[in-house]
Amino acid sequence: MYDLRIKELSFSYKNDSRLILKDINMDVKEGEFVCLLGQSGCGKSTFLRLLAGLETSTTGTILLGDQPISGASLSRGVVFQDYGLFPWMTAGENIMLALKQKFPNQDKKKLKGLALDTLKSVGLDKSVYRKLPKELSGGMKQRCAIAQAFIIDPPILLMDEPFGALDAVTRARLQDLLLKLWAQDNQKKTVFFVTHDVDEALLLANRIIVFGQSPSNIIYECSILPGSRPTREAQFQDPQILQLRNNLIFQINKDVVSHISNQYV
Ligand SMILES: Nc1ncnc2c1ncn2[C@@H]1O[C@H](COP(=O)(O)OP(=O)(O)OP(=O)(O)O)[C@@H](O)[C@H]1O
């Protein structure tokens, strides 16, 4: 089971006594698509790093099933805004690296076939296999990073503003691709997706969580039932979604205002 239980999680970086996250409690069921919103610097990436096992909680626990998370694991794939591809390796070599980790005893030819199939599944031509990341556009690099994450097939996918640097059209395409890949899986992955964009969160999430700041805690949370998820076309016409959008913007704005006024007292 890949249910996640986060209990009384607090965190400070070792070189800094400031508390970044304070008393976070969250239960996430296997297969949920959770979007995390919050002001810059409130600790969203830090939270993902804790889920990835790249940092250890100062107090509190993160349980995956009934096991505490300790260290990185193939059960948790990570996609960052900067694509996470090694620049000195071709796109294909980057994907092969992930594949070799997942299938250490598998024949290289078979793995290459799998890598090419995966490139195709994210809409990339096989010629991309031999290209270096610097020869690819931002959208192509992000497709490779998504391919890399999905090929390992982790039950939990952690995505930190993966589409933040892309233009609107490429971003929309990749949002659709991500939803398609997520939905095609019988055993849906649990996704944690950090974004600054309320509309992106509304389009992708089953559940949206807003982090406040200094130290960060959950200040607002809402669910979007599977049948109520907006389509891209109807997103700005559905009264329920517009109401939710308003609430989210209101909560984020309230947090900004309280933070600004605290700075000047
Ligand atoms: N390695 C580190 N050591 C010390 N402090 C850090 C470290 N990494 C991040 N921080 C601090 O932790 C706080 C939260 O940073 P984090 O990157 O998690 O926020 P964020 O919400 O993801 O921000 P953004 O939306 O701008 O990416 C910030 O004050 C940041 O300066």
List keywords for this structure.
transport, globular, binds adenosine-5'-triphosphate, nucleotide-binding, 265 residues, Rossmann fold, alpha/beta, 21% strand
Any overview of this molecule?
The chain has 7 helices and 10 strands. It has a domain at 4-75 and 154-264: Rossmann fold, CATH 3.40.50.300. The mean pLDDT is 89. It is of the alpha/beta class. It has helices at residues 44-52, 91-102, 108-121, 138-152, 168-184, 198-204, 239-263, and strands spanning 4-11, 21-28, 33-38, 59-64, 67-68, 76-80, 156-160, 190-194, 207-211, 218-223. Residues 13, 15-16, 20, 38, 40-46 line the site of adenosine-5'-triphosphate (ATP). It comes from Clostridium aceticum. One of its GO terms (molecular function) is ATP binding. Keywords: ATP-binding, Nucleotide-binding, Transport.
